Amino acid sequence: MGDHGPDRKARLDACNLAWFNRVMKTIPVDPARFLDDLTALRRIGGDSASMGVRRRAFSSEDLAARDWLAARMTAAGLAAHFDPVGNLFGLAEGRSLLLGSHTDTQPEGGWLDGALGVVAALEIARAARESGGPAISVVSFQDEEGRFGALTGSSVWAGKLDLAAADGLVASDGLSFAQARAQLGGRVGTFVDPAQFSAFLEMHIEQGPVLDQAGEAIGVVTGIVGLRQMQITIKGQQNHAGTTPMAHRRDAFSVAANIATALPDRFANIVTPQSVWTIGQIALHPGAASVVPGRATFSLQWRDIDGDRLDRMEAAIMALLADEATRSGCEITATRLRHDLSPMPMDAGLQAILAQSAEAVVPGRWRHMPSGALHDASNVAALMPVGMVFVPSIEGISHAFEEDTAAADLVAGLAVLADAAARIG
Amino acid sequence: MGDHGPDRKARLDACNLAWFNRVMKTIPVDPARFLDDLTALRRIGGDSASMGVRRRAFSSEDLAARDWLAARMTAAGLAAHFDPVGNLFGLAEGRSLLLGSHTDTQPEGGWLDGALGVVAALEIARAARESGGPAISVVSFQDEEGRFGALTGSSVWAGKLDLAAADGLVASDGLSFAQARAQLGGRVGTFVDPAQFSAFLEMHIEQGPVLDQAGEAIGVVTGIVGLRQMQITIKGQQNHAGTTPMAHRRDAFSVAANIATALPDRFANIVTPQSVWTIGQIALHPGAASVVPGRATFSLQWRDIDGDRLDRMEAAIMALLADEATRSGCEITATRLRHDLSPMPMDAGLQAILAQSAEAVVPGRWRHMPSGALHDASNVAALMPVGMVFVPSIEGISHAFEEDTAAADLVAGLAVLADAAARIG
C-alpha cells in the first residue's frame, strides 16, 4: 500500500539533499509542503484500505478536489478560474509559464497519476510567487481519464473537439458531458486565452517499468508515441471438431495464432526496443469447444514514436495477412480504426532544458524516453511549446490502487520541474 | 437446397442397378419406397425454403414424426413400442437383429442425419417380413442431438444414465426431461429387454468430408473416437499496452498463440491423419485493445480412435504447457473435463460382414474409417455387438439445412445395410 505523510517526510529527510539546495536558490520549493498537499488531495476520494483514490471526472469527489485545489491556488496568490468544461486554472498575472496535469482519476485509480503534476505545479507557482521568481500558472485539466471521451478537457481547450460534440459524449452510466458540466454552476468563467502562456510543462508518473527497473529517477520525454489499430477478421470454415480431418480444416483461430506468433519475426528489422504491439481482444465464432472456429475477429494495436516506423510496421502486418490468407485459404480483412493518433514530439528546446535540470538534480540517473501513454501535453502541443518529465512507477503499476513512487523520486521530480521552470523563467 | 421426391427417383433410375438386384435376392428392399418414406418424414418439421428440418427432441414435430413412424412400423407388421424415455421400437417377434438411429434433429438440422438410418431400418425390416427373411427390429432413439443431455435416450436404455438423473436435465428453454417425457402420455410402455436383440447396426451420414472428397460411397466404421478436453488458463501480467516494453511483458494471449502454433510439431510423431485437436473457445481478460491481456482461458479438445494415442497426445500437451510456462514466466494450469469419452471400437465380426457387403455393393469405393462424431451405437455397444456404416455428406456439411447426400449413395447405404442384415440373418 505504500507509506505517506510523516513517514514519507522522514524518509526524505534521510536523503542527501545537497542537490536540492541548488534548486532552492532559484525557486525555493518546499518538499514537505508539496508532500502534505499531495496527501491532502489523496484524502478526497481516497480508498480507506489502500493508497488508491476514486475521483471520476465530475463526480462529487472530483468537484470537491477541484474546489480544494481552487482554494489552495487562491491562498497561493493565483487567480482560480474554471473554464466551461471544468478545466481549473490558477492564473499568475501577465504572461506566464503553465505547469500542470489533471486531478480526475480512473474508477479505481492511483494517488499520483495526474495529481502529482498538478500539486508539483502548485508548489512551484507558490514558491516562485513567495520568492519573487518567474510568473507561473497552474492547470488541472478535466476528464483526462476518459469518463466521457479521452482527454476531453484539454481536447476542447486545444480546439481538437468542439463543445457541442463534447456535450454529446455519454458516460457508461448514462450521464452526458453536458449534464456533467452543468454541475459546475456559478464556478464557470470563460475559456482561458492560451496566448498568455509561454510554454507548458507536465510532470507525470511513467506508468511503465522502465525507470524503476533501471534504477533511474527521471525520464525526459522525447514525444508521445503514435498509435494505430486494426480490427482483423479471419473467415475460415466452421466445422465439426470430430469429423473434420486437420488437413481439411480452415480454422480461423489457428490462423490468428499463426499471425500473433509470426509478428515478432516480421517486425524484427523494423522495430526498436521502444516499439510495442498488442492483441488485446479476440472473439471466435461460434465459440464452442466442439466446433472448429469459422471466424476469428481480433484487435491489433501498435505504437511508436516514429510515424515512418508506424507505416513500416503496418506494411509488414499487411504482408503477413496476405501470406496467411494464401497459405490458409481463409479470407482475411483488416479495418483501420479512425481514432489513430500521430506521434507528438515534445519541443526540442524544452527537452534540452529538462535534460540540463535532470543532470543537475540526479546526475547520471535519468534518460530520454518516449511516452507510451497519452497525456494532456499531446493536446496542449497544438497551442504552445510543450515538455514532459516522468518519475518512476514502482513495478510499472498504474491505474490501480497499488500505484506508488518513492518519496525521494517524487521530490526529485519536483526539483527537476522547478529547476527547469527557473531556467525558462 | 438439393432436390428430392420425383427428381431423386429419376436420378436413381438412371444409375446402373445391376448391383442392387443382387441384394434384392436376399432382402428385396424397394429403393423408391425407402426414398418416399425419407421424403415423407422430412415434411414433418420441414423448413419451407430448404431441405432442412426442425425436430427438437420432444417438440410437437418430433412427437408427430414418432407417431408417423409408429404407424409405418405397425403397417409393416412390427409391434410399435415407446419406452419411458421416448425411444420408439418397431419390434419383430422373437430374437431379432436391431437396426436404427434417431429421428430428432438439431434446432436447425439436416433432413438425413439420424432419419436416414431409421428409415433404412424400416425398409429393411419391412422387406424382410414381406419376403420371409430374417427377424429385424427397428429403433429411433430419443434426444440423440442433446436438447436435454447428449444421446439421452440410448444412455438411459444402456444403463449409463439413471432415469432420475435424466429427469433432472433441463433444456435451454427451461423444460425438464421429466416434463418433456410426460407428454408421451398413454403411448408409454416398459423398457425393452435388450437380450432379445442379437446385434445392432446403425447407418448414418458421415458428417465429415472424407468420403465425399475421395469419391467413395461407403465407410465401414472401425470405432467411435474417444474425446478428451481441457480448460487451459494462462496467468500473465495485465499491463498498459503503450507503456510496457515488449521485453517486460507476460502477455497471456501471446502464450496461448504460441501453444496453438506449437501443437502440430509436438504431435508430429504421435498422431495419424485421423487424429484431430481443436481450440474452439478463448476468452481474454480484461479483453481491451489497449491492455496487455493478463489472463487467457481456452478449450483444447482432442480425439482419436486409440486410447493410448490420446494418452500420448495428453503427455505432449502437458510437456508443451510446462515448457511455455518456463519460457514465458506465466502460470499455466490445465483442468481435464469430466465428460471425457473413451474410444469405442465396433464389433470386429460385424465390421468384417459390413466390409464384405460394401465390397459386394460398391466394389473398391469404400473404406474403413473411424467415426469422429458420437452416435447412439456408442451406448448400445454396452448391450450387444454393434456395427456402423457411413454414407457421404456432400462437402462434409451436417447440422445445417444444406446437409445432403446423393440419392445413389443413400440407396447404396440401404443396399449395404440390407446385405449385411441378410448375412447376419
SSE order of chain A, as H and E?
HHHHEEEHEHHHEHEEEHEEEEHEEHEHEH
State the low-pLDDT regions of chain A, or none: 1-6, 8-15
**Mean pLDDT reading of chain A:** 93
Oligomerization state of this entry?
homodimer
Strands of chain A, count: 16
Radius of gyration of chain A: 24 Å
Strand content of chain A: 15-25%
In percent, how helical is the residue content of chain A? 25-40%
Q: Give the class of chain A from helix and strand content and strand pairing.
A: alpha+beta
> Main sheet of chain A?
9 strands, mixed
Distance between the termini of chain A: 38 Å
What global shape of chain A is seen? elongated
How many alpha or pi helices of chain A? 14
**Which pair of protein chains has the largest interface, and what are the residue counts?**
A-B, 56 and 56 residues
Q: How are the SSEs placed, and which strands pair?
A:
The structure is a homodimer of 425-residue chains.
Chain A: H1 6-13, H2 18-26, H3 31-43, H4 60-75, E1 79-82, E2 88-91, E3 96-102, H5 113-130, E4 136-141, H6 152-157, H7 163-167, H8 177-182, E5 197-205, H9 210-214, E6 218-224, E7 226-235, E8 239-240, H10 252-267, E9 276-278, E10 282-285, E11 291-292, E12 295-304, H11 307-328, E13 331-336, E14 344-345, H12 348-361, E15 366-371, H13 376-380, E16 386-391, H14 407-424
Parallel strand pairs in A: 3-4, 3-5, 5-16, 6-15
Antiparallel strand pairs in A: 1-2, 2-4, 6-14, 6-16, 7-12, 7-13, 8-11, 9-12, 10-12
Helix pairs in contact in A: 2-14, 3-5, 5-14, 10-11, 12-14
